[in-house]
């Protein structure tokens, strides 16, 4: 182990190297574990949770713990809650943890709050955790800023409805002794990122998020059957810099009646935008509503509003563009020029399924770059139909300067 911030790497025995035992290694193991700041054993499905249970007492200085896709159980979270007071980042996605484990992570048996420094908690695809467990996490962790839970808006609404009866029902079922004084419902949450993949998002949940999450900077809505009017609730979020909306199979959200009014209200400082599965998109209207846009991804849009004359005032701040197009979509040459011709700081371009791309356009893009010698153009090979893929602008945005163009 070279430094206390590195991931814990399994040795040849299939157990983490610090889990090796023996009369001479025990003391060294405990000292090394005490210095450990980051532990990542994600996807080690064969690792017996009893091994980790024996090690957790040594992890008093642990800051980051990734248990994704492991055999993590409630008892392990109970131990983490008691022994890891400095934990800031915890990932228990795709594990068998239940609501009881969340309660025991956050609250001791005598009702005292634990893991109060936790700022990031990932529990997506942990199917045994219900909205009740998510409510407990939001209620008990005052510094939580990122909470990846598919029904986040329902959980936020539950926090707003917190009362003595709800507290007794949720905590007593997990074996936690209630305090003599009630835990008040927080007047606000520190969440900056709101992620929802639930089909059944209610307008009341969005309203609760607006009231309780004034610091929210990023909204991610996937596959929700929301009506257009529900998006209007988000107009009051003044600090939004990132919006990602993937329409449901029912296409309940319309660009003109839902997305564009939202962008007109809060798009003036928007930097990141992802739109997927829409019947139509107006590029000109989008550019006017979002003058500071740096990263844009559009996927599976059936029709784009025609661009008669590209405007030099639109998309001037764009740094990354992903256009995942249906080969049959009506994409005009002027639309591509509008997106790229005036973006002198463009660093990443991904165009797939765009049949209007020509050698001349590639040359024009190259010449338009502020410093073309520092850019690289990568011609990608044929891949699956883009309609069956999702935009990847988020994780790729920090990649080296690359222009990837694919034509079918």
List the helices and strands and how they pair.
Elements lengths: L24 H11 L2 E3 L8 H7 L8 E3 L7 H10 L5 E3 L7 H8 L13 E3 L8 H10 L5 E3 L3 H9 L3 H9 L20 E4 L6 H10 L5 E7 L3 H4 L10 E6 L7 H12 L5 E10 L1 H7 L5 E10 L15 E5 L8 H8 L7 E5 L6 H10 L8 E3 L13 H4 L5 E5 L2
Parallel strand pairs: 1-2, 2-3, 3-4, 4-5, 5-6, 6-7, 7-8, 8-9, 9-10, 10-11, 11-12, 12-14, 13-14
Task: Tell me what the structure shows.
The chain is an alpha/beta fold. The chain has a domain of 181 residues: Alpha-Beta Horseshoe (Leucine-rich repeat, LRR (right-handed beta-alpha superhelix)). Helices cover 29% and strands 17% of the residues. Strand 2, helix 3 and strand 3 form a beta-alpha-beta unit. The N terminus is likely disordered.
Using the 3D structure, state the CATH architecture of the domain at 228-408: Alpha-Beta Horseshoe
Helix percent reads 25-40%
Largest sheet: 14 strands, parallel
For the termini, the CA-CA separation is 48 Å
Q: Specify the structural class.
A: alpha/beta
Mean pLDDT: 82
Strand fraction band? Answer: 15-25%
Total strand segments: 14
Q: Find the CATH topology of the domain at 228-408.
A: Leucine-rich repeat, LRR (right-handed beta-alpha superhelix)
* Uncertain runs: 1-21, 374-390, 394-403
């Amino acid at each position: 182990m070279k430094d206390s911030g590195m991931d814990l790497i399994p040795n040849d025995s299939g157990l983490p190297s610090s889990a090796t035992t023996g009369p001479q290694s025990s003391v060294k193991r405990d000292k090394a574990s005490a210095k450990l700041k980051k532990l990542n054993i994600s996807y080690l499905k064969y690792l017996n949770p009893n091994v980790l249970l024996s090690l957790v007492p040594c992890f008093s200085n642990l800051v980051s713990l990734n248990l994704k896709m492991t055999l993590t159980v409630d008892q392990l979270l109970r131990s983490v809650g008691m022994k890891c007071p400095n934990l800031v980042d915890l990932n228990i996605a795709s594990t068998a943890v239940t609501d009881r484990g969340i309660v025991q992570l956050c609250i001791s048996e005598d009702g005292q709050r634990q893991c109060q420094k936790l700022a990031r908690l990932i529990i997506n695809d942990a199917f045994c955790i219900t909205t009740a467990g998510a409510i407990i996490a939001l209620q008990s962790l005052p510094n939580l800023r990122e909470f990846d839970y598919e029904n986040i808006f329902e959980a936020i609404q539950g926090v707003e409805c917190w009362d003595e009866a709800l507290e007794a029902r949720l905590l007593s079922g997990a074996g936690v002794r209630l305090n003599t004084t009630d835990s008040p419902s927080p007047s606000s949450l520190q969440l900056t990122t709101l992620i929802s993949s639930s089909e059944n998002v209610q307008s009341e949940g969005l309203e609760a998020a607006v009231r309780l999450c004034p610091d929210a900077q990023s909204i991610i809505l996937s596959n929700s059957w929301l009506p257009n009017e529900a998006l209007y609730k988000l107009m009051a979020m003044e600090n939004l810099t990132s919006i990602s909306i993937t329409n449901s199979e029912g296409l309940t959200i319309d660009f003109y009646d839902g997305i564009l009014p939202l962008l007109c209200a809060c798009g003036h400082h928007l930097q990141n935008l992802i739109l997927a599965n829409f019947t139509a998109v107006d590029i000109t209207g989008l550019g006017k509503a979002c003058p500071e846009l740096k990263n844009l991804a559009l996927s599976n849009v059936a029709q784009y509003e025609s661009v008669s004359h590209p405007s030099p005032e639109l998309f001037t701040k764009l740094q990354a563009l992903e256009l995942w197009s249906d080969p049959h979509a009506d994409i005009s040459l002027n639309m591509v020029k509008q997106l790229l011709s005036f973006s002198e700081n463009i660093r990443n371009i991904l165009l797939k399924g765009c049949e209007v791309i020509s050698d001349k356009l590639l040359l024009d893009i190259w010449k338009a770059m502020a410093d073309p010698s520092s850019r690289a153009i990568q011609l990608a090979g044929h891949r699956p139909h883009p309609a069956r893929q999702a935009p990847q602008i988020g994780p790729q945005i920090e990649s080296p300067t690359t222009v990837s163009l694919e034509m079918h």
